[in-house]
Design a protein that fits this description.
Layout: H1 2-6, E1 18-21, H2 28-40, E2 46-49, E3 87-88, H3 89-93, E4 101-102, H4 107-116, H5 120-123, H6 127-130, H7 132-148, H8 156-168, H9 176-184, H10 192-204, H11 235-242, H12 246-250, H13 253-274, E5 277-283, E6 289-296, E7 301-307, H14 313-326, H15 329-332, E8 337-342, E9 346-349, E10 355-358, E11 362-363
Parallel strand pairs: 1-2, 3-11, 7-8, 8-10
Antiparallel strand pairs: 4-9, 5-6, 6-7, 9-10
Helix pairs in contact: 4-11, 7-11, 8-9, 8-11
Length: 364
């Protein structure tokens, strides 16, 4: 830290690529790297990694043209070798829609994967220890990380209640007012400005990542809801703060459904980022919805409904077909595919061309 304050260039000497972890603790390194890159005129010199976004205004230069930024998320089920990867998202967008495969993941496997999370430290641990990673992570967030990121002390009990409220409202469009009211039932009030401070801090340490609404061109004047869906970067944060485990969520199938949707959202964010895409959701005033919209930079898009049970597949497929009719495809183009993402066993294409894909078969 003393070197970073007095002569940061010394920390940049040595073999390249040179990795500096938690660089935001000494943000002067950002400007030092930018200067050194200009001097060397070479690519791939430095890798700066950090668990939070630094405070605003601490760097003199944005890094544009010198530094590329990449968001690192937890591991997907394919990366943790739990999905067999037999159905490729990239391949589906390339019109390879003839799918036929089988997932080996059981409901119990998915419950465990949700509670364990995609943390690299937990994936390789024995089952009896793997669940501790997310619990320890939550305690660090509550008692330290959320306050150090912006230098504003925060009440740990308020943080815990806020996280619990977000967990109870995971994969929903719960408003800030809903969150505040939820917290007030626990005899602990929070004003809207204070809530914004807490939520922004959670974003800066990569704990929450809401799912924005998709705003396509539609054929009618139907109003589209623009609220984001509440999500953590990993569903294990929700189970840890709620104090539950795989057996607990198996006994509460309603909560399991929301957590499963969050797991699917996490994985599709990872897979879509690898092919230049982003993840949204769609819902209009008539409650016609798609849980996930994957939109690529070149304009291609796909609509996905997330359903755990086989009985829900028919309704989900009908909704996706209705959504396709509502979208102005003259402006938006035809969807590359329509998919029901399930916790089931078989991947196949229906007669109406809607794809049924288990999360245990999917990859980028």
């Amino acid at each position: 830290m003393d070197l970073a304050d007095t002569q940061p260039s010394l920390l940049l000497k040595g073999d390249t690529p040179r990795l500096i972890d938690e660089w935001q603790m000494a943000p002067v390194l950002w400007d030092a790297v930018r200067f050194e890159v200009d001097q060397r005129q070479a690519v791939g010199q430095f890798i700066l990694t950090g668990s939070s976004v630094p405070k605003d205004g601490v760097t003199a230069h944005t890094g544009t043209g010198r530094i590329s930024q990449m968001l690192m998320r937890p591991m997907s089920l394919f990366e943790s070798k739990e999905s067999d990867g037999s159905v490729s998202l990239k391949s589906l967008f390339e019109s390879n829609l003839e799918i036929s495969s089988t997932s080996t993941l059981s409901i119990e496997d998915l419950a465990f994967a949700i509670c364990r999370g995609g943390w690299p430290a937990s994936v390789s641990l024995p089952k009896e220890y793997a669940l501790d990673t997310s619990i320890n992570y939550i305690e660090a967030i509550i008692n330290e990380d959320i306050s150090t990121v912006d230098g504003i002390d925060k009440n740990p009990e308020r943080v815990r209640l806020l996280l619990r409220s977000l967990a109870r409202n995971i994969a929903t469009m719960a408003t800030n007012t809903t969150i505040i009211n939820d917290m007030q039932t626990n005899d602990l009030s929070m004003t809207p400005p204070t809530l914004d401070i807490y939520l922004n801090a959670l974003r800066r340490i990569f704990v929450i990542e809401d799912q924005p609404a998709w705003s396509p061109a539609i054929r009618s004047r139907t109003a589209i809801r623009t609220s984001s869906k509440r999500h953590f970067v990993d569903p294990s944060i929700a189970t840890a703060v709620l104090g539950t485990n795989p057996m607990g969520i198996l006994k509460d199938f309603n909560t399991f459904g929301f957590l499963f949707e969050s797991l699917c959202t996490r994985d599709l964010r990872i897979y879509s980022a690898a092919i230049g895409g982003n993840v949204f959701h769609y819902r209009d005033r008539y409650n016609l919805e798609a849980d996930i919209i994957v939109s690529l930079r070149d304009g291609r898009w796909a609509a996905i409904e997330v359903k755990m049970g086989q009985k829900q597949i028919e309704e989900a497929a009908e909704n996706l077909l209705k959504l396709k009719e509502r979208i102005n495809t003259d402006k938006m183009g035809e969807p590359s595919f329509l998919m029901v993402l399930t916790a089931g066993e078989f991947a196949y294409k229906r007669k109406d061309d809607v794809l049924i894909v288990p999360i245990g078969c999917l990859r980028d």
